[in-house]
Design goal:
Length: 361
C-alpha cells in the first residue's frame, strides 16, 4: 500500500510463492521473496465443468468461466462485451485447458483486454473502450525525467489475417457424442467417475463441443450385465447414473447399489455436436506499405467469432494502427515528489490508465 496526503492505495495484492533465505550465520541475512497475484492462479488452474455458452456476450462468457474457478479474484470489474458469440467455450477440454488459456481465446475473439489491477480487481475492457477513452490521467509536457522510445520496422503491420470460426451444429440432440468401448466392472456398493470426451462420429471421433445434452436414460444410454460380454443377467436397475455435462465432455457418477458386480456394457452420451471444422480468413493489406517495407504480417485468431464482417473490421482497425512507422514510447519516468499532482499520480496510476506525453525532440 502507498499512502500520500492522507489517502492509501493498494498497489499490489498477492501471495508468497517462494522464499529463499541466505544460509549460515555469517552471510547477509537476506531473504529473497517472490510473490504472485491472482493471474498466476489463473495460469495454473485447469477448467472443469464449464458448459458451452450459447448466444452470450463476452462478459457473460467470462462470468461463466469465473464461476468454475475454485479461487476467485478479490473483485471483478467487467465491461459489457461488444461481441455476442453464437457458441463459445465449446473447445475447452475438461480438466486439461488452463483457465488463462480459455480467457485468452475469449479476449482474442472480443479484441478486448483482461488484467488485474493493483488492488486485486480483475478488469475486462471491451474492444471499443480505449478508442473512446481520451481523458489523460496524467500529462507530462516536457517534464519527464526519462523517456525510452523506438521507431522500428518490427512494429509495422501491413498485412493482417483475421480468422473466424463458423460452427456446424447438429439439428437435433440425437447424435451419440461418446460411446464407451470397454466394459468396466462396478463392484457392489462401489461408485466410479468415468469421463467421456465428445467426438464427431463422422470424423473419427475428432474432439468437438456439445450442447443440449440429454440426461442418461436407463436401457438406452447405459446398460449393465453380470458378464463383460453382455450375457448373464441384466442388472441395469442396480445402477444410479448421473451426468455432469461440460462443454467438451461429460463426467459420470455411477453407483452400483446392487449385491453383485455389474459390467457396464453400454455407456453413451447424446446431444447436439458443435463442430469447428471450417475456418474463414479475412485479409486486410496496405499495398503501398508492402512495396516500401516488404510484407510485415500479423495473424489474429478470433476463436469464438463466426461473423466475417466483424473480422474484416477488426483487421482494418489493426492495419490503421500499425501500417505506418511511428515513434512509440516504451517507458517513461518522472520525479514524483516534484509536485503534489505528480505524487498523487504515482500513488493512483494503475494498469491501463492513459497518460499523455509531449516531447518536442
Amino acid at each position: 500500500r502507498l499512502t500520500y496526503d492522507g489517502t492509501t492505495v493498494t498497489r499490489f495484492l498477492g501471495t508468497i510463492a517462494v522464499a529463499t533465505p541466505d544460509p549460515g550465520a555469517y552471510r547477509g541475512s537476506l531473504t529473497r521473496v517472490t510473490v504472485v497475484d491472482w493471474i498466476d492462479q489463473a495460469a495454473s488452474t485447469r477448467v472443469r465443468g464449464v458448459a458451452t455458452q450459447v448466444n452470450q456476450r463476452t462478459d457473460q462468457v467470462l462470468a461463466a468461466l469465473l464461476a468454475v474457478m475454485p479461487v476467485q479474484p478479490e473483485a471483478t470489474d467487467l465491461a459489457v462485451g461488444d461481441s455476442t458469440f453464437l457458441y463459445a467455450l465449446d473447445n475447452v477440454q475438461d480438466a486439461r485447458t488452463r483457465w488463462l488459456t480459455a480467457a485468452a481465446a475469449l479476449m482474442a475473439s472480443e479484441g478486448g483486454r483482461l488484467f488485474q489491477r493493483g488492488d486485486g480487481t480483475l478488469r475486462f475492457e471491451n474492444r471499443l473502450y480505449r478508442p473512446g477513452y481520451h481523458t489523460a490521467a496524467l500529462t507530462l509536457d516536457e517534464t519527464m525525467q526519462g523517456l525510452t522510445v523506438s521507431r522500428s520496422r518490427d512494429d509495422l503491420i501491413n498485412r493482417v489475417h483475421v480468422i473466424v470460426h463458423p460452427r456446424r451444429v447438429d439439428a437435433a440432440a440425437t447424435t451419440v457424442l461418446y460411446t464407451l468401448t470397454t466394459a468396466p466392472v462396478v463392484n457392489a456398493n462401489q461408485t466410479i467417475h468415468p469421463f467421456g470426451p465428445y467426438g464427431d462420429p463422422q470424423d473419427g471421433n475428432r474432439r468437438c463441443g456439445g450442447t443440449d445434452l440429454v440426461p442418461p436414460v436407463a436401457g438406452v444410454d447405459y446398460v449393465a450385465n453380470t458378464a463383460a460380454d453382455g450375457s448373464g443377467a441384466d442388472v441395469t436397475g442396480s445402477l444410479t447414473v448421473t451426468a455432469a455435462f461440460g462443454s467438451n465432455g461429460v463426467r459420470w457418477t455411477i453407483l452400483n447399489g446392487g449385491a453383485v458386480a455389474a459390467y457396464l456394457t453400454t455407456l453413451q452420451c447424446r446431444g447436439k455436436g458443435i463442430y469447428d471444422t471450417q475456418r474463414l480468413i479475412m485479409e486486410a493489406s496496405d499495398e503501398d506499405g508492402i512495396a516500401d517495407h516488404d510484407v510485415r504480417p500479423a495473424t489474429l485468431d478470433m476463436v469464438y467469432e463466426d461473423d466475417a464482417s466483424v473480422a474484416d473490421g477488426f483487421g482494418q482497425a489493426i492495419l490503421h494502427l500499425y501500417k505506418d512507422a511511428q515513434t512509440r514510447p516504451q517507458a517513461v519516468s518522472f520525479l514524483a515528489n516534484a509536485s503534489a499532482a505528480w505524487m498523487a499520480a504515482a500513488r493512483d496510476l494503475d494498469i491501463s490508465d492513459r497518460i499523455a506525453l509531449v516531447e518536442s525532440a
